[in-house]
Amino acid sequence: MAATVLGNQILSQFQTLSSLKYLHQKCSELEKLLKNTSTKDLKNVLPYMLENIFGCGQGPGWGLDMISRSSNPQDFDSIRKLLAPEGPVLSLVYTLMTDSFYEFPIIALPSPTQHLIEDGGLPIFYANKLQYHNFGRPVIVLNAYEFYMFHLAYHLVNTRVQNHNCNWNNITDTLYPVLVDDYLNYFLPLNRDSLPKMPIVQAPVRSPVVHSPVAGKSFNIPASPPSPQRPSLLKSSFVSAQKQHAQTTAVINQGETTETYRSDTLIQVFAEFWLNQNPISLDRQTFSHTASPMMGSLNRGPRWLENYMPSTNHVRLVRLLVKHVHSFVNTGTKEVVSSPYQSHITSTLDEFKKSLIPYIIQKKLYMFLRHGFDRWPLDCSFRLLLETWLTYIQPWRYVNSRSKLGRRDSDVNDTKTVEEKWFPFVEDNLLFYTVLYQEFTQRVFRMDLTTQFNACMLYRANKVYSLPNLSNMMFRAERDMCQAIQMGRSGGLDLGGSYISPEASLSLHTQISELEKPGFQYCRMYSENMIQMVKAILRHIEVAKQALSAQEESFNRSRKSGMAAILDISSWFQDEGSMGDLSPSEVKKVHTYLDTAATNICYIFEIEVPSFVSRPVSALSAFEQTSFLEGSFLSDSSPDCAETEEGFTLTPLGRHQLMNKMRKFDVMYQGDPDLQPIRSFENATLVRLLYHFCNFINTQYGPNIQSLCDRNDLIGRMAQVYFAPPLPKGSKMSSPISLTQRQTLQTPRLSLRLLASYRTLVYLGLLYLVLSLWRGISPVGYLFCLIGLVLLYGFLHALTHRSSMKMN
């Protein structure tokens, strides 16, 4: 009874502490409470404390993802000290590891794990954590250390935290990634020959599989139901001989205090919560943007599976984890056998380093990247996921690394030859090099390569693959694993279902069965289909370069020199420092990215480097020639279309090109420029008044304007300058429009929207100020002066630019 009263007093003290306004005050008072209270009394406080800090339950938490070093240095340092690997909270956790166990909510587990448990399966990571009570209801029972790490990892994927929409521009300045980096550096040290010593506690430290009290309750543990097995025609001994899960050892050795336990648990928890949010065993059609139904077992009706999309902060931490794991694994000692009769004894730490990537990280990271490549939005944020993938497939960059959090990757070692010692890694992770590259290639077809970010991503990926000796190792690994494939055969290799195809080795079967879903068709990296896809990518690059060149030519034509520049009044109001959304320097950089990417692609696949100049039609294939329209109103990069009374419509060939991403329409505004939304540099009132005035003139005097522009004399050419249509005859469009809309845009009209620009008004005001101070001109005289300048501009423009076609 006294113990219960004391426990309630401690809980009330903790609740009072939680009501404090400032976080550094909470940390100070909490540290005093942990120091002055016995471990036995703090046993029941730990769940409330972790829920209050990380916000796992109903509480909002302390907002670790929003606390920055620059804006809240006192709170940052106080919480970092409190939650340090050897700080007060984890010291309490280490002490409670022996005899305290806590229940973690199943609803907070990743969706694939939840569904597997609900179907009666037993995920191997939860073999000593899953218990059943109250009519078979499953519960997750964890020791204190596991309980803390589950809360820490869940904080990143918690929907309440993701709703903060807080983007970490600098992860060295934000508390949560700094804490994660502290734990990685402590439990996976890069500059030590041993892991940190386990605190002196009594064994066992692992979650028990037997009857144990949890939060004052006792549970009777029934026999765990068998996990569902995927049917296979291979003997189980064959597959198990290839790869045995490292966690089986952990389950067997229950009760042993191993030196790698905390490090192993940390990585497995991070991999479970951060990389295992979407199962790859489901077809893509079963997902939607939010959720999709899937029939559950035991006739429980349809189940809705969420399509989890990681945030940019999530991807940043995954990349940090991958970089640190590579650096940690590469610190392992090499096996040196001086005699064939001498057996090499490998330490526990070295065994842990060898098993870390293939048994814990590989499968879940592959699912994470595969899902991201398929469903990430087509914007520049994909660069984060791309760099995470490139980080994993380049372990040689993290040898003898003493990297700090947020270190910017250097490109100094990017051109070094990949040593032969990395061939086993390439072979064991072949799908990361082949399947994910093919997924990225499919994504390139949907990317606008005229933008700097997309061109840079294409350049980065192929720069890595063009490293000396890497493509050779990939070719040898694939050849060795598919020795009996007929080299002249096109199409994918079906390695799905039972995985007993005689055309591939057992190691490739095992790798695909572990990483891919049943029915997956493996396409060889250097097959004829892939070569054709790469050539299509080169054509896509060429089209992008042509678009950039056309933009440059248009910009250069608009820039005049000498007297022509002075007389060209419209050039006064143009931004001469940019070409559309890109500056001249950025356009040059995009050209460099595309040229380098194309060169690297040709090096990887050993094909001829294209010249990237305008090719004559005779140099194209017969299939490509059919997609060009003689004098077409569409651009050459558009799908094949036929001109009808309703405008251009897709032909069967054009639909084939569009569906197979061979050609596409460039989406841009092609309507009436006078009806565009009002810009920030325009006066809204003037835009509306000038539009109504011009609309009145064009409506009342449209036929007269048309007949005036049809004249072939000087007056007609001057009228074409003042009443130029939005869409001149002969110009190419990026996508088809209706015949009525095209005729409307080709009709001569008066447009004065240029006068509503603030820049135009400032220039006109400055000109009036200069003339009034210099010549003392009046407003009426200034108006006549402007009319004279406009007439002079039209006269000179008509003399120097003869009309190439007659207005209709």
Q: Given the helix and strand composition, which structural class is it?
A: mainly alpha
Largest sheet, in brief, is: 3 strands, antiparallel
List unreliable stretches of 5+ residues. Answer: 207-257, 282-304, 406-413, 484-504, 571-578, 613-636, 803-808
In total, the number of strands is: 11
Number of helices: 32
Can you give the helix content as a percent range? 40-55%
**Whole-angstrom Rg:** 34 Å
Largest sheet, spatial ordering of strands: 1-3-2
Strand content: 5-15%
Mean pLDDT: 75
- End-to-end separation: 100 Å
Shape type: globular
Question: What can you see in these coordinates?
Answer:
- The chain is mainly alpha-helical.
- It has a three-stranded antiparallel β-sheet with strand order 1-3-2. A two-stranded antiparallel ribbon has the order 4-5.
- The termini are far apart.
- The model is unreliable at 207-257, 282-304, 406-413, 484-504, 571-578, 613-636 and 803-808 (pLDDT under 50).
Question: Top keywords for this entry?
Answer:
808 residues, mainly alpha, three-stranded antiparallel sheet, 49% helix, 5% strand
Quick gist of this model?
By secondary structure, the chain is mainly alpha-helical. It is 49% helix and 5% strand. It has a three-stranded antiparallel β-sheet with strand order 1-3-2.
List the helices and strands and how they pair.
Blueprint: H1 2-18, H2 23-36, H3 39-42, H4 46-54, H5 73-82, H6 88-96, E1 101-104, H7 111-118, E2 130-133, E3 137-143, H8 144-157, H9 159-162, H10 175-187, E4 213-214, E5 217-218, H11 236-242, H12 247-252, H13 261-275, E6 291-295, E7 302-306, H14 312-329, H15 348-375, H16 382-392, H17 423-428, H18 430-444, H19 452-465, H20 470-481, E8 493-494, H21 506-515, E9 521-522, H22 528-558, H23 563-567, H24 584-605, H25 622-625, E10 641-644, E11 647-650, H26 652-659, H27 684-700, H28 702-709, H29 714-722, H30 739-745, H31 758-775, H32 779-800
Antiparallel strand pairs: 1-3, 2-3, 4-5, 6-7, 8-9, 10-11
Helix pairs in contact: 1-2, 2-5, 4-8, 8-13, 10-14, 13-15, 14-15, 14-16, 15-18, 16-19, 19-24, 22-24, 29-32
